[in-house]
Amino acid sequence: MRQFILTTCLLASLAVRQTSAEVNRSPPVSNAAFYPYGPGTADILDSPADDSSSGEQSLSIAFPFFEETYNSLWVNTNGDISFGGSVTGFTPIPFPVEDNKLIAGYFTDIKTSYDGRSGYIYHRETTDATVLSRANTDIQTAFPAEHGSFVAIWAYIATWHEVAFFGSSGASRNLRNTFQLVLITDGCKSFCLFNYDRIDFLQGSTNGGDSETGTGPNPAQVGVNGGDGIHYTPHPYSTSTDLYNLPTWTDPAVPGPPGRWYRRVDRKIIGDTPQGCPPSYEFYGDKCVKLQEHPLDYAAAISKCEADGARLFNIRSQADNEWLTDQLHLFVSGKLYQRGFWIGLTDEDTEGTFVWEDGTTLCPTSYTNWASDALASNDGTRNCVYISRGYNGKWSIKGCDDKKKSICVTDAEIPTCP
Ligand SMILES: [Ca+2]
Ligand SMILES: [Ca+2]
Question: Which range is the signal sequence, renumbered to this chain (predicted)?
């Protein structure tokens, strides 16, 4: 019987595996983000399935996840890797979810057993020198300051190749998604690469989905769920129609190929816990944030953050803007949000030249999200920039003496691995 909630099964699945030679398949994608998979590799190919898993996969190197280490993992049909048990539910209940410790590459109702087979789920652990060398380059390039000397000792590559969605039929059976999770560790720190090549559907036909279009009110979840009901990290596009853009998305803050997202996963990355954030701050993503509800002028808002060792939230990317806009939704309700929040950008010193609070200048190529009339009405009396959720996260300019809410932010510090 199909389950209607996300559940963990502690028993290993008895899924029977086929070797690579047993079925015909389209070739692996040619995509710079993807690690080698499928025919020609040592990949396990899971049997066609719905709401099932690979069964428990023993690991030769323990994988650090969420401040614990795991000697096994499960690769699940519905687009995720889990620890401590399989996850066979098909409803992407919004994170944070208790009991399920998982990394969701594209968690929705996937089915690979239509017409004998409708998609391929491959996976393997590896200590192959070529793979590890590539992993080193990827992590070192992505995080040169923090992890520039990272040395991988192990990786796990799981690929959902051209998988179909549950409830698809006829033409919609041709809507296929191809994505890959790559787990990498040096034995202490660990990372996951999320790679996307093709996203044709947003969700399965369960949870209100449309069996003809693969769309619906509950698009797939992408991200990391710690499993304590508190800590999680969603991709900025998770549960939105932006999921279609995953194959071309690049993280503006992290160098890497299009279609890839990086997350460090050994630490407690999010949530409301005493360590890691200053008092009265909450975890959001790998940041600590605090809403300053009391409206303050621009200088006072900055001073208030600085008193906590924090700064105004600066927006450097579309992902930042989307993240912040979402947070405003969580923080405030009713009409309060329409008053706007200072974002730490001003042209107070030189009219028309905008500078972030940390001293960096807004360049012509920098990400911006100006309201259509913002720059045209900019003058010497309007020098400080705010974002308003009531205006879809657009930026506007006001006098710096105006009083607005603000959000202080600081990086979370969680001592686990260096
Ligand atoms: Ca399914
Ligand atoms: Ca101005």
Answer: 1-21
